[in-house]
Specification:
956 residues; alpha+beta; 7-stranded mixed sheet; 28 strands
C-alpha cells in the first residue's frame, strides 16, 4: 500500500491550493486573500453526502475521492471515514479543516490510522494524552511530521529550526489547530508567517532578538535603562509556585454550582452577591424542582437544566448592566457565565469528575507560536485568535522584546489558564517601570486557592518577576474592561493594607521602545494595542482613562469610566510581603555579552548624578547669597504637593499678566509629563522665583522644554534669572538632555527676553512658531558656558601638580579641534606603532563627534602629552569614549599618564557620563604591561579581544 496516494501530493496542502504563490522565503507584500470556501447548510449533519460536498468545496471531486479510496483496503477506508467523521462532527468545524488532515493521512501509514484517530479525539476534547497516544507520538515522530508540514507550507527549511516548546501537549494541539485553519489565519495576519521566517532564519525567537540588527539595538536600550536584559529576554525559569492550602479542600462540581446559585439568588440569611436585574423569587420557582434534585441527589441532568435556565437570565442582566455602564457588576456576571460553561463541560466530558490540581505556577512565556495564539474560550481576551477583536496583537507581542508575558498554569491542565501582558519602560522620573496592561485568566485557575488566594499569587508573581528584571516600579492599569477588573479590584482592596502600593489618577509611562521599532516588519500594525495607552499609537503618554470604547476603525477613551494606575514599589513590596526567600535563583544563560554589560547603566549612575547636582546646588546657592538673604534652592521632581503648587501660583500671579497666568489645572497637567520638575528659589523661606520644565509630548525625548521662569516683581533685575538659568542648564546636562527649548511670547518685552536668553547660550530659531512666539534653543554639551569656570579650576590644579614633575608645564583643554590641534595628535602618535596611528581624516571625523575634547600638556611650550576623548554615537549616552593617550617617551614613567587619566575623568564628571570605555594593547612598545597599569588606576576588563583589551573606568 502506497503512503502518499490518498488525497494530496506530499508537497502541498491541497491539490488546488490558492496559496502556492505565497510559499516563498520572504513575505509577499500582498495580503493573502481569505479563502472563499462553500459551507454546506447542514455541515454538522453526520452524512457522507455532506462530507463529499465539503471535499468538493476545497477542490476534491467525488470521482477523485472515490478513485483514491479504491487504492486502500476496506478496513483502512473505514478508518479514514471515521477519522474524517471526527473532524466534521466538531461544533466549530469548517471545510478548510480537511486540507491539513488530508495531508497528514497521506504521510501516516494506514496501520496507524486508529492511533491517529485516538490522538485527534483526545486533542479535540482537550484531555491529557493517554499513554498509548504518547507512545504513538514518540514512536512515529508525529511532532516532527507536523512541524515539517507547517514549515513546508511556509516555504521554509525545517532543518534550520530548533523548537523548544514549553509544553509538548499544548504545542502539538496548537499546531494542529493552526494547520486546520492556516489559510484563513494567514489571510488575516501575515505576522504568523513572519514569526516562522524568523525562527527558520535565526533558529529561535531569542536568537532573533539578539542577532537581528533592529531588535539587537532594542536589547541595548533595555540594558541602558538598567533592566536585566539577560533575565528578561533569555531566562525562561519558573517565577513562583504554590501547592494546595492545607485549609482548603477540593470543591466538587455540585458544590460549586450550588455556590453560584447562592451568589445569584441569595439565601434566607444572606443577600445575593450579584445583581442580575431579575426577579429572584420568580427565577427560583423556575429552577426549584431541579434545585432539589441537585442538592439531594447530585443529579447531573437537573444540573444541566439549571444551567440552561439560569443562563438567559444572566445574559439579560448583563445587557442591562452594560447599558447602565456598571462595569464591576458586568464582570461578576461574566465570571459566573464562564463558571457555568466550565461546569457544563465537566458534566458533558468528565462524567462529573474534577481533575485534582497539584500546583499553581507562573513562568516567563517563551512566546512560542502557535501555543500562544489561541484562546480556546478559556480567557475571553480580545488579543487572541481566532475571534478576538484585536487578535493581531498576540503576534505583535511576540515580535517585540520589550513586551514580556507571564503565563499562569495549574496542574494537571494541559494549557496555561492565565496571562499577564507586560511592557518595559520608565515613568515620569525615568525610573525603571513595568506596566501591567491586563491580567486575563480562566476560572479553572481559581480551583486550588480560590479567588483571593489566586489573585494574590498572580500579584506576587508579577512583583517577583519585576524584582528579577531589575525594575523599580510596577504599575497596574486600574481601568481595564471585562474580566481583568476582578484582579484590579483585588489589588485595590489589598492596597489598603500595603504601604508599597499607591493609587494615581494620572501616570506618565513611556516604553523602552516607544515608537515600537521592533514592529518594523509587522504586516498588520506598526504599534501595539493597550487598554492603557490606546490602539496603534506610540507606547508613551499619560495614563488615565482606558481605551475601551471601540468604534468604526478607532478605539477611544471611555472618559466616564474608571481611571488611573496602582503604582507598586518593587523592593518595598517584596520586603513587606516577605517574598525574598521564595524568589528563584536566576538561570545562567549563554546570551549575556560584554556589549550588554557596557550598555547597562551602572547601579551607581543615579546616585552619582544626584551627587553632582548637590555640588552644583551648593555652588549656585553661594552665588544667590550675593543677591538674597539666606537663599535656598529646592528641586522637586517626585511628589508635587499642593503647597508647592500654591507657592508657584503666587509667583505667577505677581510676575505675569492675567492672560499669561496658569491655573492650578494647567500646572497639574504639565506636572504629569515626563521629567517634569520645579526648581524653587527661597529667601528666608519665602518663595521668590521658580523654573517649571518637562519633556513635551510634541518633542524628542532628548529635548527638555523650559516652560516658565518666574520671579516676583521686587526681585527682578537683580540677576536672579541668569543664575537660575545657569543652574537649570547644568542640571539638564546632568539629566542627559541634549537641548533646551524655550518659547517667548511676542510683545513689548520680546527683544529684552531674546537678549537675555542669547547671553546665556541660546540661539533664536526661525520656525513654525514665528507668527505667535519666539523659539530659542540651547545646545547642551560639555563645552557649555556654565562649565568654563570648572575647566579653569581643573587646568590650574593639573598645572600645580605637574610643576612637581616638569619645569614649565602648561595645560590646554580644547573643544574645537583646528588644524594645529590635529597636528599635535599626529606628532605625538609617532610614539605608537604605525598600525595604531590615526591619519588626519580619521581625526577630523572624530573631532565632529559630540563632547569631543583634547587635553594637551606642554613643557616649555612644546606638547609632550595629549588625550583625545568624545562621545562615540555607537555607545549609549552614559558612556564616554577615551580614544587615545600619547606621552613622549622621555616623559613616560613620571606619573603623567596617571594625571591625564584623572583629568579625563574629572572633565567627564561635568556632564552625564558615569563610565568611560577604552581599548588598550596588552603591552606597550616599551614593554609596559598596560592592562595592569590601568587596573591600578581603577579600570576593569570588560572583554579580551585578539589583539587588544576592552576596559572601563567608573566615572564617579
Amino acid at each position: 500500500m502506497k503512503r502518499n496516494t490518498l488525497i494530496t501530493k506530499p508537497n502541498s496542502l491541497s491539490p488546488k491550493s490558492p496559496f502556492q504563490n505565497y510559499r516563498k522565503s520572504e513575505l509577499s507584500k500582498t495580503l493573502i486573500p481569505k479563502p472563499e470556501i462553500f459551507i454546506s447548510k447542514n455541515q454538522n449533519e453526520n452524512t457522507f453526502k455532506n462530507l463529499l460536498a465539503d471535499l468538493q468545496s476545497i477542490g476534491i471531486s467525488n470521482i477523485s475521492f472515490f478513485n483514491l479510496l479504491s487504492n486502500y483496503e476496506l478496513n483502512s477506508i473505514s478508518e479514514i471515514i471515521s477519522y474524517l467523521h471526527l473532524i466534521v462532527n466538531r461544533e466549530d468545524y469548517h471545510p478548510e479543516n480537511l486540507l491539513f488532515h488530508q495531508r497528514l493521512l497521506s504521510i501516516i501509514p494506514p496501520k496507524h490510522y486508529k492511533a491517529l484517530s485516538k490522538l485527534l479525539q483526545e486533542n479535540y476534547h482537550s484531555i491529557a494524552f493517554s499513554e498509548e497516544t504518547i507512545n504513538f507520538i514518540e514512536d512515529e515522530k508525529i511532532v516532527k511530521i507536523i512541524d515539517e508540514i507547517l514549515f513546508q507550507y511556509m516555504g521554509l527549511l525545517y532543518s534550520k529550526t530548533e523548537l523548544h516548546p514549553t509544553n509538548t501537549n499544548l504545542n502539538l494541539r496548537s499546531k494542529i489547530r493552526l494547520l486546520e485553519s492556516i489559510n484563513t489565519l494567514l489571510s488575516e495576519d501575515l505576522n504568523i508567517m513572519l514569526y516562522f521566517q524568523m525562527i527558520s532564519t535565526y533558529g529561535g525567537l531569542q536568537a532573533y532578538y539578539q542577532n537581528n540588527k533592529i531588535t539587537s539595538e532594542i536589547l541595548r536600550k533595555i540594558s541602558h535603562k538598567g533592566f536585566d536584559t539577560d533575565y528578561i529576554i533569555f531566562n525562561s525559569s519558573q517565577i513562583h509556585s504554590i501547592g494546595p492550602s492545607k485549609l482548603e479542600k477540593q470543591t466538587e462540581w455540585d458544590e460549586r454550582l450550588l455556590q453560584i446559585i447562592k451568589k445569584i439568588l441569595g439565601s434566607k440569611d444572606e443577600k445575593p452577591e450579584v445583581d442580575i436585574k431579575q426577579n429572584r423569587n420568580k427565577l427560583f420557582n423556575i429552577i426549584k424542582e431541579h434545585y432539589t434534585l441537585l442538592k439531594n441527589k447530585k443529579d447531573k441532568v437537573a444540573a444541566l437544566e439549571i444551567i440552561n435556565l439560569i443562563s438567559p437570565a444572566l445574559d439579560k442582566g448583563h445587557s442591562i448592566l452594560k447599558k447602565q455602564n456598571k462595569l464591576d457588576e458586568e464582570v461578576k456576571i461574566d465570571n459566573l457565565k464562564l463558571e457555568l460553561d466550565y461546569i457544563k463541560d465537566i458534566l458533558q466530558n468528565y462524567e462529573g469528575k474534577l481533575p485534582k490540581p497539584r500546583k499553581l505556577y507562573a513562568v516567563r512565556s517563551s512566546k512560542n507560536i502557535p501555543e500562544l495564539l489561541f484562546d480556546n474560550k478559556r480567557l475571553s481576551c480580545c488579543i487572541f485568535k481566532p475571534t478576538g477583536l484585536f487578535h493581531g496583537e498576540i503576534t505583535r507581542l511576540t515580535l517585540n522584546p520589550t513586551t514580556p508575558i507571564i503565563e499562569f498554569w495549574l496542574e494537571p491542565y494541559q494549557e496555561f489558564l492565565g496571562i499577564a501582558t507586560l511592557y518595559l519602560g520608565v515613568n515620569r522620573l525615568g525610573q525603571k517601570t513595568i506596566l501591567v496592561d491586563t491580567v486575563e485568566y480562566d476560572n479553572r485557575l481559581l480551583e486550588l486557592r480560590g479567588n483571593n488566594g489566586t489573585m494574590k499569587f498572580i500579584l506576587n508573581s508579577i512583583l517577583m518577576d519585576a524584582h528579577q528584571a531589575g525594575s523599580k516600579k510596577v504599575v497596574i492599569f486600574a481601568a481595564p474592561y471585562g474580566k481583568p477588573i476582578n484582579f484590579v479590584n483585588y489589588v485595590k482592596k489589598f492596597s489598603e493594607k500595603q504601604a508599597s502600593i499607591s493609587f494615581h489618577e494620572a501616570y506618565y509611562f513611556e516604553s523602552v521602545d516607544p515608537d515600537n521599532t521592533a514592529l518594523h516588519s509587522s504586516s498588520n500594525s506598526k504599534h501595539h494595542y493597550t487598554v492603557a495607552l490606546g490602539y496603534n499609537k506610540p507606547l508613551k503618554g499619560v495614563i488615565d482613562y482606558g481605551f475601551t470604547q471601540v468604534g468604526a476603525n478607532k478605539v477611544e477613551k471611555l472618559v466616564d469610566g474608571n481611571k488611573g494606575v496602582f503604582e507598586i514599589d518593587v523592593e518595598e513590596y517584596i520586603k513587606e510581603n516577605k517574598l525574598i526567600s521564595q524568589i528563584h535563583k536566576k538561570e545562567k544563560t549563554s546570551f549575556s555579552t560584554p556589549k550588554m554589560l557596557i550598555d547597562r547603566q551602572p547601579d551607581y549612575h543615579e546616585t552619582t548624578i544626584n551627587e553632582r547636582k548637590e555640588k552644583v546646588i551648593d555652588k549656585f546657592t553661594k552665588k544667590l547669597s550675593e543677591k538674597l538673604s539666606n537663599p535656598k534652592i529646592e528641586i522637586t521632581n517626585k511628589a508635587f504637593s499642593d503647597e508647592l503648587i500654591e507657592e508657584l501660583l503666587s509667583i505667577e500671579k505677581d510676575s505675569f499678566s492675567n492672560e499669561l497666568r496658569y491655573s492650578t489645572d494647567d500646572i497639574k497637567k504639565r506636572l504629569q509629563q515626563k521629567a517634569s520638575q520645579i526648581i524653587m528659589i527661597y529667601e528666608n523661606k519665602t518663595p521668590v522665583g521658580f523654573i517649571l520644565s518637562y519633556v513635551s509630548p510634541n518633542l524628542s525625548n532628548e529635548i527638555i522644554y523650559l516652560d516658565t521662569i518666574g520671579i516676583i516683581s521686587e526681585k527682578q533685575n537683580l540677576g536672579l534669572g541668569q543664575i537660575m538659568l545657569q543652574l537649570y542648564s547644568k542640571i539638564s546636562l546632568f539629566d542627559g538632555f541634549s537641548q533646551i527649548y524655550v518659547l517667548t511670547e511676542k510683545g513689548e518685552k520680546s527683544e529684552s527676553l531674546i537678549k537675555f536668553y542669547k547671553r546665556n547660550g541660546f540661539e533664536l530659531i526661525s520656525n513654525q512658531f514665528k507668527s505667535i512666539s519666539n523659539l530659542l534653543i540651547k545646545q547642551l554639551t560639555l563645552k557649555i558656558k556654565e562649565n568654563i569656570e570648572d575647566f579653569e579650576v581643573l587646568k590650574a590644579e593639573l598645572v600645580t601638580t605637574l610643576k612637581k614633575i616638569i619645569p614649565s608645564p602648561e595645560v590646554e583643554i580644547l573643544f574645537d579641534l583646528d588644524h594645529n590641534a590635529l597636528q599635535v595628535i599626529i606628532d605625538l602618535e609617532k610614539e605608537f606603532d604605525i598600525d595604531l596611528r590615526y591619519n588626519r581624516e580619521e581625526l577630523k571625523e572624530r573631532s565632529n563627534y559630540k563632547d569631543t575634547f583634547l587635553a594637551i600638556i606642554k613643557d616649555d611650550g612644546i606638547p609632550i602629552a595629549s588625550s583625545l576623548c568624545y562621545y562615540d554615537p555607537s555607545l549609549l549616552d552614559h558612556t564616554i569614549f577615551f580614544d587615545t593617550m600619547c606621552i613622549r617617551q622621555k616623559y613616560q614613567s613620571k606619573g603623567i599618564g596617571k594625571l591625564i587619566v584623572k583629568s579625563m575623568l574629572d572633565i567627564s564628571k561635568l556632564s552625564k557620563y558615569s563610565q568611560a570605555l577604552f581599548y588598550c594593547k596588552n603591552v606597550s612598545k616599551e614593554g609596559i604591561n598596560l592592562i595592569e597599569f590601568y587596573k591600578k588606576l581603577g579600570a576593569r576588563i570588560v572583554e579580551v579581544l585578539e589583539d587588544k583589551t576592552k576596559m572601563i573606568f567608573q566615572v564617579k
